[in-house]
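User: Predict the complex with nicotinamide-adenine-dinucleotide.
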Amino acid sequence: MKIGFIGLGNMGAPMARNLAHAGHNVTGFDVNFDQAKACQDSLAVADTAADAANSQDVVITMLPNAAALNQVAVEVVPVMTPSSFFIDCSTVDIQTSKRVADMIVAAGLCGLDAPVSGGVGGATAGTLTFMVGGAANTLELLMPLFDIMGGRVIHCGDVAAGQAAKICNNMILGATMIATCESFALADQLGLDRQRLFDVVSTSSGSSWSMNTYCPVPDVGPQSPADNDYLPGFSAAMMFKDLALAHDAASMTNTNTRLCMLAFQIYQQFASKPEYAEQDFSAILNEIKNTSLKA
Ligand code: NAD
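Assistant: Here is the predicted structure with nicotinamide-adenine-dinucleotide placed in the model:
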C-alpha cells in the first residue's frame, strides 16, 4: 500500500518504520524536520503534510494533541484520494475525534480512530494494542496494517469509541504510576531494597504495567526510561494531557472519578515544572522522593 505517515515522534517513527520494513511504500512528514530526517533510512520524507497525504491509499496520523490533529486534518483531508483511508492513532478528546470523523465522511473518505497502548517499546516491537472506533468493515480492510504495527486490535465501537477506551485506560496508568512511585519511596524510607520490592510486587497483587514493564527506578526490572535518565518514553506533559482528557470526560458525564482527579492535579503540578515537563512521566518518582508528606 501507499501510506502517508504524519507525526514521526517517539511513537510515529517506529510505527512508520515497521510499515516500511514490511514492504509498504511509506512517505512521512513531521513539522520538526530533524524528526523526519531521522527516518530517512526507511521512508521517503515529504516537505508538507499535504504532500505526504496526496495520492496515498492510507494516511496515518500520530500527533501530540487535538490542535495538531485538527490542523493536519484540515490540510490533508481535501487532498486525499476519494475512498482512501484516514487512521488517527493520536490520543485526543472525543469531540475532536468526532469532528475529524465528520470531516472525513464529508470528503468521501473512510476513517478510524485508533489510539494505542504499549509505549515506545511496543511501537518499536510492533506489539502495540490498538483500540479502534469506527465501522467494522473499514477495520477489517485495514487489519493487515494493524497486524504489522500491533499485537492486539480491539474494536471498541463506533466513531471515537477508541478514544473513550484510551482515556479510561490512561486514567488507570496515571494513578498506578503514582502508586508505584509512592511504593518505592516508602520502601526506601523503610530500608527495603528496591530490587526486592520489584521481585515481590511484580509477581503479587500489586503488579501493574507501571511496575512490571515500565519500572520507574533505574537498574530494576526491564529496560525503561528510568535507565535512560528519564528521557521519554511518554512525557510528563503527555500524561498530564491524558489525565486532563479523563478529567474533562468525567466532568462532562458527571462520573465520580476521585482518584483520577487527584492524579490529574499531581501531574498538573509536576508537568508545570520546566525541569520535568519533557522528562518521562515515571520521573514523578523523583518529585515524590523530594517532597515530604508535611510539605
Ligand atoms: P511526540 O511528541 O514524540 O511526537 C509527536 C510528533 O508530532 C512530533 O515529532 C512533532 O514534531 C509532530 N507534530 C506536531 N505537530 C505536527 C503537525 N502539525 N504536523 C506534523 N507533525 C507534527 O509524541 P509521541 O510520544 O510520539 O505521542 C504521539 C501520540 O501518541 C500522542 O497523542 C500520545 O498521547 C500518544 N501515545 C504516546 C505514547 C508514548 O508512550 N509516547 C503511548 C501511547 C500513546
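The two ends are 57 Å apart (CA to CA).
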